[in-house]
Amino acid sequence: MEKWSSSMPRRTFIKGIASSAAAVLTGCADTDPPTYGNLLRMGDVLTYKAHRILLPGHSLAREYDSSDISSVPAIGTTNPADASQAAFNPEHGPVYGRLLAEEFFNWRLTVEGSVMRPSSFSLADLKRMPSRTQITRHTCEEGWSAIAQWTGVPLSSVLEAVGIQPNARFVQFYSYDSWADGIDMLDALHPQTILAYGMNGRELPNGHGAPLRLRVEKQLGYKSMKFLRRIVVTDNFDDNGSVGHIQNGWSWYAGI
Ligand SMILES: Nc1nc2c(c(=O)[nH]1)N[C@H]1C(S)=C(S)[C@@H](COP(=O)(O)O)O[C@H]1N2
Ligand SMILES: [Mo]
Prior knowledge:
Blueprint: H1 10-25, H2 28-31, H3 42-54, H4 93-101, E1 109-113, E2 119-121, H5 123-128, E3 132-139, E4 145-154, H6 155-162, E5 170-175, E6 180-184, H7 185-188, E7 194-199, E8 202-203, E9 213-215, E10 228-234
The structure holds the ligand Nc1nc2c(c(=O)[nH]1)N[C@H]1C(S)=C(S)[C@@H](COP(=O)(O)O)O[C@H]1N2 and molybdenum atom.
Molybdenum atom (MO) binds near residues 75, 141 and 221.
């Protein structure tokens, strides 16, 4: 197991952030959402452009009081080891089953790609890093929303630990079911974008993505991937092939 180190000169990291954020923020080419040239996707293009040009990049999603917390249904995959669930992955599902049986002691999050120090983190490693707790509204594309408290490590802290390279523009996520997805660097470095291991003051419940899920508070709920296993920083957009949102009729960018 490789542990993260804080030895990287801070300036290198800041430079990386500044150039990636600038790449996202400036120039028309960079505010085109990564793929689709077809007309049916024009709404997505407009939403992405409007958000990236008009909204301050790091405006915060609303945060609520603990008295606002509501019950949250577990949606989509609730156990990646369950072969009867729609997004069951024959390669990773059984691995998840074993990790779950060991209460995630041997679970590791690998972080690689355009980074200076590819690393893997245990849950204990992540819990030793800076933490953020936020009470936010989860909005599902199916039309329901719910409020919960999430605790985790800011994705920016993990990216700082591994050191993103100057050309990095996207962060890709892979789960123990068959999900693969990505966000741009602006959302990746957003202060409310966290890798959550806690929910409502407890360990993240299994059905909600244990041991670790993404929270991207500035986008619809389906961007908050559950059951994370791997993060890859990329220089170029990746539509994730047949399992990607675009290929399945959903927007890659689902800003709210
Ligand atoms: N790996 C994975 N992540 C996922 C899903 C899924 O099925 N698998 N469903 C998504 C959708 S559509 C929603 S609304 C939320 C649901 O999170 P919850 O089960 O904690 O309510 O997770 C998102 N992340
Ligand atoms: Mo959803």
